[in-house]
Design brief:
The protein is of the alpha/beta class. 60% of the residues lie in helices and 7% in strands. The protein contains 18 helices and eight strands. The protein has a four-stranded mixed beta sheet, covered by helices on one side. The protein has a four-stranded parallel beta sheet with strand order 5-6-7-8, sandwiched between helices. The chain starts with 6 loop residues before the first strand and ends with a helix.
Length: 539
């Protein structure tokens, strides 16, 4: 196959250009004046497609700038095949059909290329174009190899009596014949061969002069020049017909804008200054409306939620993963236990928990919490009218507000830390406040416990029950222990591998375990929260 990727060839008419050149925008090669290099680059890009894929839907973007070309875009697609060869994938036929289907939809003009020495009834290009364009309103038939059939037979094909197309057929001779002059390239030789062929059969195909709109006397369209003019005429007609739809869309948008203007401004005159002033007033009013979310009760509730999460993190870090955590239930249930009777181990745990809370940067975290809320507020304001009509103004508003927050957040967090520092280490509470805090802590713990139970239930359902979950956790723990043992051996410099028989047994066991536990379930079992949940459930 020659064409393995769609080639999007864009011809750009540049009347002031001194020469002709091409560009590959995606490759960044700059201007290429040697068209043989362009041909080699196209060949390399096509051959870069792996053989097992055969075709790729990633297009090649090529642009040609010249004063001798019209403004036109052509797309060269891989040719249809009937069967795939031995080294090609079995799905190649379907891949090519799906690739071409994307490009032959409306409003694109279809160039159905078919050979003159092959019956048009067997042409895949005509068959596919007939499916998407039944009336042939946007299909041009390009008949190649006109020199391989008798002139009368070629003229009968171009007349389109058997398979009519609204845009007609154009006959071309694309292959050079005869000897080339030493200054003549392949393109010029092919053009000369085409001109000579149709001139020799002027009685059948008519005149091939550029001034004639069609071959005189016969009404047939032949020659590459005629194909070029036909394409330009068809594209101009297509663009002219689409202008009506564009005009209607603009008219509807104008009427909608006029209606909105009447609703919002009651048909009164408005200037740019007054519009900006009203927009700023609306911004101030909206900001004032949203500031109710940042009053003392709302901020206190958000800070309490944040501190509750920190408390849960400390409990998980110090208590829930502790194997002696069950002793706390007995200490709490015994009314005779006094503070001085508590083991020093638990007093150390309490001091560590207090230290984690006081040194966690409560002032900085609370400042970041408020700053994030303000940022979200600004983003929500900028995402609503009238800023939806002015994306640049909305972007500048967001950048400006975020820059202010970034400049002030450091000083503000330091000020908050200094304000709360005297109260971080010696908290004075009365009996009522202590009891209220204790009740809230119990409620928080029960809420977290319910969430954990719900998550554990979901995990059980995913892995297939409690027994399978226990087996999975044991399997993960065994893997972790083996990995830890291997690390310790490597650190100690001991290279003691298992015996061959042990290796076979280990391999069989691992294969059996891998079959029992899919990778997704192993990831569930490796999660620390899942392990702690299972341990808590076991206890």
């Amino acid at each position: 196959m020659v064409t393995r990727r769609p080639i999007e060839l864009t011809l750009i008419h540049t009347p002031d250009a001194k020469g002709e050149y091409g560009e590959f925008p995606a490759l960044g090669l700059g201007r290429i004046t040697d068209f043989s290099n362009i041909q080699r680059t196209l060949t390399d890009l096509n051959l870069a497609v792996p053989t097992d894929e055969a075709v790729s839907d990633e297009p090649i973007d090529l642009r040609i700038y010249s004063s001798r070309v019209p403004d036109l875009t052509l797309i060269d697609l891989p040719g249809y095949i009937q069967i795939a060869s031995m080294e090609q994938p079995d799905s190649l036929k379907e891949k090519i059909a799906a690739l071409c289907e994307k490009y032959i939809r409306e409003p694109n003009i279809i160039l159905a290329v078919c050979a003159a020495d092959v019956d048009l009834a067997n042409s895949p290009a005509l068959r596919v174009s007939r499916r998407v364009d039944p009336l042939g309103l946007r299909t041009i038939g390009v008949v190649t190899k006109m020199d391989l059939v008798p002139p009368e037979q070629g003229a009968a094909i171009l007349s389109g009596n058997r398979y009519p197309l609204h845009l007609g057929y154009v006959g071309v001779v694309a292959k050079a014949t005869g000897k080339a002059h030493w200054r003549e390239n392949a393109t010029s030789l092919a053009h000369r061969a085409e001109t000579d062929f149709f001139a020799d059969h002027k009685d059948v195909f008519g005149d091939l002069s550029p001034s004639s709109s069609s071959s005189s006397g016969s009404g047939l369209m032949v020659g590459t020049g005629m194909l070029r003019r036909r394409l330009i005429d068809v594209l101009e007609s297509s663009m002219a017909s689409s202008l009506h739809g564009i005009t209607n869309a603009v008219q509807l948008e104008l009427e909608e804008t006029q209606y909105q203007f009447k609703v919002q401004y009651n048909d009164r005159r408005i200037s740019a200054e007054s519009y900006v002033a009203e927009t700023m007033d609306a911004l101030k009013g909206r900001f004032k409306e949203f500031t109710t979310q940042f009053r003392k009760p709302q901020i206190r509730a958000k800070l309490k939620e944040m501190l509750d999460e920190k408390v849960m993190d400390v409990l998980e870090q110090l208590y829930w993963s502790d194997r002696r955590a069950a002793e706390l239930a007995a200490l709490g249930a015994d009314p005779k236990v006094k503070p001085e009777d508590v083991e020093s181990y638990w007093r150390y745990k309490l001091e560590a928990a207090s230290s984690l809370l006081t040194k966690s940067g409560v002032g900085r975290d609370s400042t970041l919490l408020v700053a994030d809320g303000l940022s979200a507020l600004i983003d929500s304001i900028a995402a609503r009218e009238p800023f939806t009509f002015h994306p640049q103004a909305a972007e500048r508003l967001i950048e400006f507000s975020h820059a202010i927050l970034r400049d002030r957040i450091g000083v503000t967090s330091d000020s908050v830390e200094n304000c709360i520092k005297p109260y971080k280490y010696e908290v004075e509470v009365d009996e009522r406040e202590w009891e209220q805090g204790r009740t809230q802590a119990i409620d928080l713990f029960e809420k977290e416990s319910k969430l954990c139970e719900s998550k554990l239930t979901d995990i059980r359902k995913k892995v297939g029950g409690s027994r399978r979950l226990s087996s999975l956790v044991g399997y993960v723990k065994r893997l972790e222990e083996e990995e830890s043992d291997r690390k310790q051996r490597r650190l100690a410099g001991v290279e003691i591998g298992p015996q061959p028989s042990d290796e076979a047994t280990e391999k069989q066991r691992r294969e059996a375990d891998d079959y029992r536990f899919p990778p997704a379930q192993v990831l569930d079992g490796q999660s620390p929260s899942h392990n702690s949940l299972c341990d808590a459930n076991t206890r």
